[in-house]
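A quick word before the example. In earlier lectures we treated sequence and structure as two separate objects. From today on, think of them as two lines of the same record. Here is Glycosyl hydrolase written that way.
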Amino acid sequence: MKNNSLKLICLLCSFSFFAQGQKVKKHQTDFTTKGKLVTVYTTADSTKLRLTPTDTLAFVATKQPLETEISIFVAPQKTFQSFMGIGGAITDASAEVYAKLSKEKQQELLHAYYDKNSGIGYTLARTSIHSTDFSSASYTYIQEGDASLKTFSIEHDKQYRIPLIKEATKIAGGKLLLYVTPWSPPAFMKSNKSMLKGGTLLPEYYQAWANYYTKFIKAYEKEGMPIWGITTENEPMAVQKWESCVYTAEAERDFLKNFLGPTMKKEGLGDKKIVVWDHNRDLMTQRANVIYDDPEAAKYAWGMAYHWYETWAGGAPMFDNVRKVYEAYPDKKLLFTEGCVEKFDAAKYQFWGNAERYGTSMINDFNNGTVGWTDWNILLDQNGGPNHVGNFCFAPIHADIRSGELIYTPSYYYIGHFSKFIHTNAKRVSTAVSRSSLLSTSFLNTNGKMVTVVMNQSNQKVTYNLIIGTEKTVVVIPSHAIQTLVY
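And the structure line, produced from the sequence above:
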């Protein structure tokens, strides 16, 4: 009798677990290709195709794909991180160039970036706490030496930057997720007594500097611009010729847990997200280990920000480090906060390799767990500036101030293949490619539409199968092209 009771309990437990498993499975397999068409959008080198609808395809039954075929496998039942958004930085440089455009061109630029229908639908924006190299000069919001911050004022930003942020938000439908980053504390707070060329934050100014962030957030929000969050410091391991400040992993950890985190909470800003690191992929695992393994620091960190410039040393992008942080700390988020093509050269406006750098990074970063992706300057002039230390770079769109024209680079369209079609809160879906000539990632939007982005870096046109379960469609992608498939 006792054994029979035990058997009955085990049977009921097994049935309960089976039923739960079936329920999850059923919920996870809601997506179907039945009766759906695939709309294909293409951007390709040496053609006029720019986010152009190029095909409408149907699904058919599939069988075992051959080794000789190239296939992309999408598994809707296997989902990962939720998508936060894509955008670019609204810097002083972008705002100053924007102010020099005609009203007509200003509207064109805003709609190109922030309109979901006529443009590429940016939903994120990054801006700085006082100056960066992409400002016409160094400046802060206080008089030098004012540790009490009594002279704090964002009046400087009201001329160019704040009006552009407000206009962008309006075109984005009244909502733009805005986060902010400092490049350097004021000179008097630093060991080298300069905002430029590195230096460190002096311990006696830790509290004053923490207060500075909260002053900035409150001042911007008073102007009607909600701040989603902050990063601790831009590129804390780089001694740059422009605004910069060095924090070791231990220094950033201690500043976060003893000053910045508690001060944000005390000032009623505990709901704002604090994002650590904000530097390249090379050292991100070590920074994560030091900060996240300290429970008192980790509780204030929403996640980790990173950039793509580790290639300065001559190596390849360290995409795998993003995955390693994602796997080691699955409860913490990953946010790409800056990338641009360095060393501006007007002869390379239409250089296709610049766009492919974006596509390669975005696909790899999303596949490795990143929730959002933010480009650097949304707009620069015909010199790749203004930049007060001559660090001229590319942007997806440039303005030639002499002619008043906007110049769209291929990078703009490559970013658009993601930002225009993947919506906030979409779930990344397992996607694998059978041949290295293609890269791919997929997201399932909350409206039930699947978005698969495919990139071909090769010199050859490629025919590939898009396989979902027992159905497939066959797609052709030109050489050096990117496609978005919506179905």
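Notice the following. The chain has two domains: 37-81+429-486, 85-423. We will return to this example when we discuss secondary structure assignment.
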